[in-house]
Amino acid sequence: GQNIDQPTEMTATEGAIVQINCTYQTSGFNGLFWYQQHAGEAPTFLSYNVLDGLEEKGRFSSFLSRSKGYSYLLLKELQMKDSASYLCAVRDLNNAGNMLTFGGGTRLMVKP
Amino acid sequence: EPEVTQTPSHQVTQMGQEVILRCVPISNHLYFYWYRQILGQKVEFLVSFYNNEISEKSEIFDDQFSVERPDGSNFTLKIRSTKLEDSAMYFCASRETGDNQPQHFGDGTRLSIL
Questions:
Q1: What is the reported pLDDT for B91?
Q2: CA distance A69 to chain B (A)
Q3: pLDDT tens across B70-108, in order?
Q4: Do the Cβ atoms of A101 and B106 come within 8 Å?
Q5: Which residue of B3, B26, B43, B59 to mutate against A (max A Cβ within 10 Å)?
Q6: From the list A50, A87, A97, which residue is nearest B100 (CB)?
């Protein structure tokens, strides 16, 4: 099976930088995705990592270390609208349908 | 930008009744998924579907659940005899061919079983 851990909640200040960590255990790692989910809404895709290193996309970056089973999502120049849950999801080679296994999500509150 | 659409947005049903949740995936996508999210809990995989058949299903997806692609655009999830614990948000997702392609989620159907 798979186990994905993220902090439950984080708080940060508008304009600052925040790092949301995710650790995972899986037998056949085949990619990690980050999604943003506002309350009551659908998850929206943010980033994808399958090789070690940093992927940058505007204010959002995601890092992966496969040997450590570790990823983080970095949000820069925080805005109030970034208040949301951030979901880490892992894909496993052993799953035929390319399904995603989600962590519990990290609820980020951005304060003025 | 093309999106996954789901109907209805909210469904209220008596326990034991059948429900059908509808999804229209993005038109050039070939891989379809259903997930559910019980209030305050994590998103959980139910089933994946490709080439008109189920490619994988979770333990949650028991005999009470079924999926169908009745025509070229719709993808449905049926729950035959609903239970109280089926109350959740149900998300449909689809993706293009290619391992690096993300799944795109619809806005969900909130299912409330009374």
A1: 97
A2: 19
A3: 888 899 999 999 999 999 999 999 999 987 899 999 999
A4: no
A5: B43
A6: A50
A69 interfacial to chain B (CB closer than 8 Å): no
**What is the rounded distance in angstroms from the CA atom of residue A105 to the CA atom of residue A103?**
5
Q: Which helix (H) or strand (E) holds A86?
A: strand A84-92
Provide mean pLDDT across the span A1-20: 93
Chain A residues with CB under 8 Å of B100 CB are: 31, 48, 50
The type of residue at A105 is G
Tell whether B40 lies on the interface with A, counting CB pairs under 8 A. Answer: no
Tell me whether strands B19-24 and B5-7 are parallel, antiparallel or unpaired: antiparallel
Residue B111: pLDDT above 90? yes
Amino acid at A2: Q
